[in-house]
Amino acid sequence: xxxxxxxxxxxxxxxxxxxxxxxxxxxxxxxxxxxxxxxxxxxxxxxxxxxxxxxxxxxxxxxxxxxxxxxxxxxxxxxxxxxxxxxxxxxxxxxxxxxxxxxxxxxxxxxxxxxxxxxxxxxxxxxxxxxxxxxxxxxxxxxxxxxxxxxxxxxxxxxxxxxxxxxxxxxxxxxxxxxxxxxxxxxxxxxxxxxxxxxxxxxxxxxxxxxxxxxxxxxxxxxxxxxxxxxxxxxxxxxxxxxxxxxxxxxxxxxxxxxxxxxxxxxxxxxxxxxxxxxxxxxxxxxxxxxxxxxxxxxxxxxxxxxxxxxxxxxxxxxxxxx
Length: 323
Ligand code: GDP
Hints:
The protein contains twelve helices and eight strands. By secondary structure, it is of the alpha/beta class. It has a six-stranded mixed β-sheet with strand order 3-2-1-4-6-5, sandwiched between helices.
């Protein structure tokens, strides 16, 4: 796996969330509508499993609407869960959020029992933007780079509705390889943690299969969707490099530059509305990832047994912290 990230302050954030959850009525999990399962933090679901959850598929303006509908149906079928789509063009998202939270925790409301909501999400999912819209201020910091830790803030939406913000948080171990690539493509992971070309090739592999016409149109490739789908990923990246003038000289293409272009175009929504996973696909990726992970853990345990005799517990995957 080429993607290695360092979830800065993860332990602190985890502790803060575990503490806060005790006095929380509903957890809002902000997801990226283009990668709804990959952008869900598995550690978060463990920490908050005792509370009803509102899954907000954010940036829905960038996502494939038919697939967003599939994901909403998928999440809405889960117990104690509601799911809604949202994007920054909505000037009054509060109404929708407040209504969904009251549906999930109908016994809360009024000054004696205010609704206490914890809002979580991975870096760059649009949490600051949403909070700024909700509060009508520019207090929360927004930006394109993967997020920095903020202290927990309480936002009073109405007299009896409190929103607790948490820092954008990633998790230390990728079980689903595709999730790592999709997170990197979306901009959730700092760029030093992955290889641009590898991520761009994975992205193109998905796009050429599911959205070939969008690729042809965006890069003005003089090919049919069928031709694009049949191309090797490397050849497609090279064709894009040539079209965009990413040339090193003597006819050699600059694949690094072309990779950056592909990722930039995706993040900016320039291919049109794209979603990188369906519920069925993700279920398959997860099953395969879990199997691989189990095999990996067994190998580690076996190595531990050989080295340490009786103490054969699997090595822990110790999370690294960047700061
Ligand atoms: P945070 O790290 O979760 O707080 O994310 P930010 O609020 O800083 O947003 C990250 C980037 O996504 C910024 O460039 C925002 O302008 C952009 N963004 C946020 N919400 C949306 C949305 O609904 N649609 C689109 N297209 N972009 C958004």
